[in-house]
């Protein structure tokens, strides 16, 4: 994350790669309904170093989130020290979420971390008295509110409130009986912590009154009551992208890049030795079953908002994995249950080393593999931007990229239209550009963009698909190489001075530009409607 300073996908819409780069992020307030997200992005751009700010946010979310997760679990006696540390590592190295190096989505990572910070503050407030209790409760409510920047953390928040209810229930008088005891626990939870009960209601009320989603965003978040078939299909998509594809991807990566997993094994072995798992007694039957039950409950709860909104994750496109950020929690719970079952036969230390150790190796190895892909993709962006900046701008404002790296023997994901348009602005200044990758879009892309940019709350008001056209041919150059080799060369150039980074980028790709109608794309006529596609 420290070495990768590139922007990915929608990062180009909300962050400024340099001070004079034009963006319009009002859509976050007046279209997408993300006021907290808007505040973070505005502050990051105001500093003049938005990439550094966002990387710092991501690191803060990971560090404080993992620390507070460990502290909460051990203070409540839910996990021993080694289990808590292993649990936190699995949660915060979950490779199903591939966008850890993304910049704008660092707000998501930070929000996820704040959920655990809020849980820790609530744990402290529960046992505090007087002014300290009041201050902790205020801080807890504020932290949870900020965590809602990632709206689906509200489901994680619901489980924190369930934990508060259980604490109240356990403290109630057993003589009241189960029903009365449960009712009293619920009442006391609401009466003792009213600010936490109304917090999500206040947040959602504020969004729907002052920051209501409109236009394409109202259509994108198509909230509805799904049928049983839709639920099954949606949950199946999350199982596939969140777990099945992760394991399959890990097997392929280990075969193709065994060195990464060897390094991950060495690192994890050191971590396991430092943790020194104890020899605590075998967990009870409920202690073994409860983590698995919670894993299933959390999986269904965390995926439900996306299923209800009609959104699906994908493991094939790194950006479409953004819905999977929190799904390391069910993974960690499932590993915890497996570890507690295994320790009945081989002991706690060996069970921890095998179960959590293997989980960490898979997570870290696959995480590094994904970082290599994103780093190589960033280098390709820089190579194209450098080449364009060194040219006189052709007489065109609408550009299609014919990306020859699609046929290169390396993982390939085409540039999004925000990325291509952003690179054009970075190279040639703030003009009404519109750019896209041919393989990624339909022939009607110009009509679709015209409709999108004129809709209320659009993020694309400053995109213009109606100008003169040109095609950019981006082909592998003499310095092109598979992702891992390219990234090693880049790091050798950058840190060991074995070559010049600028020269490496110049050799990476060959760029040619042909001015004229874009082949296969339906042009806009004067009314904004489509004509026959160019041949």
Automatic annotation (TrEMBL):
Keywords: Membrane, Transmembrane, Transmembrane helix. The keyword Transmembrane applies. The keyword Transmembrane applies. The chain crosses the membrane at residues 51-72, 84-100, 106-126, 138-171, 191-211, 223-243, 255-275, 287-309, 321-338, 350-368. This is Glycosyltransferase RgtA/B/C/D-like domain-containing protein.
């Amino acid at each position: 994350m420290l070495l990768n300073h590139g922007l990915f996908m929608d990062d180009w819409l909300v962050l400024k790669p340099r001070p004079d780069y034009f963006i319009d992020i009002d859509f976050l307030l007046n279209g997408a309904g993300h006021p907290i997200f808007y505040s973070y992005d505005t502050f990051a751009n105001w500093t003049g170093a938005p990439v550094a700010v966002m990387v710092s946010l991501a690191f803060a979310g990971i560090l404080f989130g993992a620390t507070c997760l460990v502290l909460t679990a051990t203070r409540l006696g839910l996990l021993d020290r080694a289990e808590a540390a292993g649990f936190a590592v699995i949660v915060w190295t979950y490779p199903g979420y591939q966008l850890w190096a993304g910049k704008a989505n660092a707000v998501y990572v930070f929000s996820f971390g704040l959920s655990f910070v809020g849980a820790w503050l609530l744990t402290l407030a529960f046992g505090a008295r007087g002014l300290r209790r009041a201050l902790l409760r205020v801080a807890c409510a504020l932290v949870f509110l900020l965590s809602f920047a990632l709206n689906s953390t509200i489901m994680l928040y619901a489980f924190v409130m369930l934990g508060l209810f259980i604490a109240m229930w356990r403290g109630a008088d057993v003589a009241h009986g189960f029903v009365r005891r449960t009712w009293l626990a619920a009442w006391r939870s609401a009466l003792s912590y009213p600010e936490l009960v109304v917090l999500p209601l206040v947040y959602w009320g504020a969004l729907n009154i002052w920051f209501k989603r409109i236009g394409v965003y109202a259509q994108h978040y198509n909230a509805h009551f799904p049928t049983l078939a839709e639920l099954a299909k949606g949950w199946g998509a999350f199982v596939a992208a969140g777990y099945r594809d992760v394991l399959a991807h890990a097997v392929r990566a280990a075969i193709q890049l065994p060195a990464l997993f060897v390094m991950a094994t060495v690192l994890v072995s050191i971590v396991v030795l430092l943790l020194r798992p104890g020899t605590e007694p075998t967990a009870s039957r409920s202690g073994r079953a409860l983590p698995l039950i919670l894993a299933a409950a959390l999986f269904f709860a965390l995926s439900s908002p996306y299923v209800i909104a009609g959104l699906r994750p994908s493991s094939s496109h790194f950006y479409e994995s953004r819905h999977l950020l929190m799904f390391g929690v069910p993974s960690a719970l499932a590993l915890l249950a497996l570890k507690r079952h295994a320790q009945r036969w081989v002991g706690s230390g060996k069970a921890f080393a095998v179960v959590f150790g293997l989980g960490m190796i898979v997570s870290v190895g696959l995480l590094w593999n994904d970082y290599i892909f994103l780093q190589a993709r960033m280098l390709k962006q820089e190579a194209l931007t450098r080449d364009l900046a060194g040219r006189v701008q052709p007489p065109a404002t609408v550009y299609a990229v014919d990306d020859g790296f699609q046929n290169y023997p390396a993982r390939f994901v085409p540039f999004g239209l925000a990325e291509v348009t952003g690179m054009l602005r970075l190279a040639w200044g703030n003009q009404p550009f519109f750019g896209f990758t041919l393989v990624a879009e339909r022939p009607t892309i110009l009509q679709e963009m015209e409709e999108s940019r004129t809709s209320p709350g659009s993020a694309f008001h400053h995109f213009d698909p109606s100008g003169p056209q040109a095609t950019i041919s981006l082909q592998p150059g003499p310095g092109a190489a598979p992702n891992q080799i390219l990234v090693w060369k880049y790091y050798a150039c950058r840190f060991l001075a074995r070559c010049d980074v600028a020269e490496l980028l110049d050799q990476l790709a060959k760029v040619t530009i042909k001015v004229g109608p874009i082949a296969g794309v339906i042009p806009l006529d004067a009314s904004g409607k489509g004509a026959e596609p160019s041949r």
